[in-house]
Amino acid sequence: MRELAAYACHPESSRGRRYTEQAPAGRNAFQRDRDRIVHCSAFRRLEYKTQVFLNHEGDLFRTRLTHSIEVAQIARSLARNLAVHEDLVEAIALAHDLGHTPFGHAGQDELNACLRERVPLAGGFEHNLQSLRVVDELEERYAAFNGLNLCFETREGILKHCSMSHARVLGDVGERFVNRTQASLEAQLTNLADEIAYNNHDIDDGLRSGLITVDQLLHLEIFSAHYAQVHSRYPNVEQKRLVAEVIRAMINTLVRDLTDTTMARIRQYGPGSVDEVRTCPPLAAFSDALRVQADALKKFLLVNLYRHYQVLRMMNKARRIVRELFVAFLEDPRLLADEYRREDPVAQARVIADYIAGMTDRYAIREHAGLYRMES
Ligand code: MG
After folding, report:
1. What is the pLDDT of residue 185?
2. If you measure from the C-alpha of residue 172 to the centroid of ligand 1, how many angstroms do you get, rounded to a whole number?
């Protein structure tokens, strides 16, 4: 790793862990966080959770696990370019989606709606907050504490957004939402690495599934410009390789633009420490021109892929499964194994939400069949 910039997060001056532990031997504190995340059970379950396409719809589509690995790869490149901590961005990237429900955003929206309708005092469901809850509370791997006891800097990066009502009761990691300050540069960059990853891999998966076409994408400036470059260089190349080259080139352009724009902003504001980064305006950014193109791409994917009728049909089924699981357990908690039973109704609702959120797609489908279908 190259020498860290003054504005990077330095593991030796971390704000620390919730439970004091001895510094690790032979690795730094952020490396230890990354290693703890890779070994936790929520991380393994990402393999069977939907990104856009349901896990069982095809073997070639991204899952939450491969998405998280792509985010980590892009974030590491960015961190190296900008001399901030590579292990920290990797830890944040690998943990950022740990709180996702089965069936992607549809599952999360339905679980949130169920909680808000049926148990308003439980405060709803937010996947970013759930990712933090997984690493702070839900993992049961250590004798001395719940969760993974990660460093403040990793936890700060995992909590990308949260509502003000939650921020006020979260303590240290909630403060920036109340004070309207920023997270570390490592957290900001990983957030944008997430966006680079999903926009590009959703084009790839969207084309592979046949739900979107190259002709549609050619109306987008960011796609058509790179397509023209690749096509003029390799005029006879087959479509599959052409698309892969275009996506590769787009990711490179986005990473380069983000690096250069962020570096210019760092020079402009001159933060001398991570605490100064936190009080600057957001430093990690695309150039205005590329931001416009990336937003057009996001909008295209929303309209043409995420709202494609075939995707919506699947998501409709997914919503029903999540709702029916929640209702069955809430109305009769005796259907839950003893470890998931609570006396207090709000605590009970939260445990049901944690249980459902932790399910993989296929486990949720099986559990639903077990509750609602006599032959199962
Ligand atoms: Mg993500």
Report:
1. 98
2. 23
Rounded to whole angstroms, how far apart are CA atoms 364 and 103?
9
What topology is assigned to 27-311 in CATH? Hypothetical protein af1432 (1.10.3210)
* Predicted local distance difference test score (pLDDT) of residue 61: 77
**What does the alpha-carbon distance between residue 245 and residue 238 come to, in Å, rounded to a whole number?**
11
* Cα 242 to Cα 115: distance, rounded to the nearest angstrom: 46
User: Helices 104-118 and 309-331: crossing angle, nearest 10°?
Assistant: 40
Distance (Å) from CA 66 to ligand 1 centroid: 10
Q: Which residues contact 200 (CB under 8 A, 6 or more apart)?
A: 247, 250, 251, 254
Place of tokens 């962020």: 262
Q: The pTM is what?
A: 0.96
Residue whose C-alpha is closest to residue 367's, from 102, 106, 122, 134: 102
Distance in angstroms (rounded) separating the CA atoms of residues 37 and 23: 17
Expressed in angstroms and rounded, the spacing between residue 46 Cα and the centre of ligand 1 is: 11
Distance in Å, CA 97 to ligand 1 centroid: 6
Q: Which of 168, 137, 172, 140 has the alpha carbon at shortest distance from 156?
A: 172
Per-residue model confidence as pLDDT tens digits over 168-208: 988 999 999 999 999 999 999 999 999 999 999 999 999 98
Q: Give pLDDT, residue 57.
A: 67
Tokens of 122: 């439980």
First to last CA, the chain: 53
Distance (Å) from CA 116 to ligand 1 centroid = 24
307: number of Cβ within 10 Å: 11
Going from the Cα of 37 to the center of ligand 1, the distance in angstroms, rounded, reads 15
Q: How far is the CA of 232 from the centre of ligand 1 (A)?
A: 33
pLDDT at 60: 65
pLDDT at position 58 is 65
The domain locations on the chain are 27-311
Residues (pLDDT < 50) of the chain are: none
Residues in the chain: 376
